[in-house]
């Protein structure tokens, strides 16, 4: 799979790989750091082989390669619904004490947790934040909640 991605990468010319001159360098300016990793808490939690429940984790921003790689995965070609499993397994960096999050881990998650992670992925990568607008069912007042935080009512 890596060979295919490398073979389809654009070629760089010697002029592109040469170090830019100091005169051509843009002026240094202070910018806000880009947030690339987002914490989350699963609604149910992943139960590992030992029976330990893992609810807290982190997801990094997806790269173009992360979104392209599943397209050449044989499991995805056989079953397009498997795309989200492969994609999530690439961007979840930690799930409790589990640091090797692979497709098998995502496969064993509860459907509610996978749905939560799919929405979380979309919010982080499309909208750039983890907030969601909600409406109170009693007073119909609108407010925002941060999906990466704890359960409602907990601090």
Describe this entry's structure for a reader.
Mean pLDDT is 80; it is low at 150-155. The chain has a 3-stranded antiparallel beta sheet with strand order 1-2-3. The chain has a two-stranded antiparallel ribbon with strand order 4-5. Strand 4 and strand 5 (142-146) form a beta hairpin. With 155 residues, it is of the alpha+beta class. It has helices at residues 2-7, 14-17, 64-68, 74-78, 83-91, 103-107, 111-127, and strands at residues 37-47, 53-60, 92-95, 131-135, 142-146.
The tally of helices reads 7
Category by helix and strand content: alpha+beta
Which percent bin holds the helix content? 25-40%
Note the beta-strand portion.
Answer: 15-25%
Taking Cα atoms only, what radius of gyration do you get, to the nearest Å? 20 Å
Uncertain stretches = 150-155
Q: Tell me, rounded to a whole number, the average pLDDT.
A: 80
- Largest β-sheet summary: 3 strands, antiparallel
Sketch the topology as an H/E string, one letter per element: HHEEHHHEHHEE
How many DSSP E strands? 5
Question: Outline, from the CA principal axes?
Answer: globular
List the main descriptive attributes of the protein structure presented here.
three-stranded antiparallel sheet, 5 strands, two-stranded antiparallel ribbon, alpha+beta, globular
List the helices and strands and how they pair.
Blueprint: H1 2-7, H2 14-17, E1 37-47, E2 53-60, H3 64-68, H4 74-78, H5 83-91, E3 92-95, H6 103-107, H7 111-127, E4 131-135, E5 142-146
């Amino acid at each position: 799979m890596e060979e295919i991605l490398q073979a389809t990468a654009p070629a760089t010319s010697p002029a592109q790989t040469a170090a830019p001159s100091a005169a051509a360098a843009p002026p240094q300016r202070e910018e806000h750091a880009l947030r690339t990793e987002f914490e989350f808490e699963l609604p149910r939690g992943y139960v590992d082989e030992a029976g330990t429940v893992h609810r807290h984790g982190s997801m990094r921003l997806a790269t173009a390669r992360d979104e392209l790689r599943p397209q050449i995965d044989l499991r995805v070609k056989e079953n397009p619904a498997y795309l989200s499993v492969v994609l999530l397994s690439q961007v979840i960096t930690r799930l409790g004490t589990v640091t090797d999050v692979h497709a098998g881990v995502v496969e064993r998650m509860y459907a509610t947790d996978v749905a939560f992670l799919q929405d979380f992925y979309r919010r982080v990568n499309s909208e750039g934040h983890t907030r969601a607008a909600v409406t109170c069912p009693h007073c119909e007042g609108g407010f925002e909640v941060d999906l990466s935080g704890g359960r409602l009512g907990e601090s």
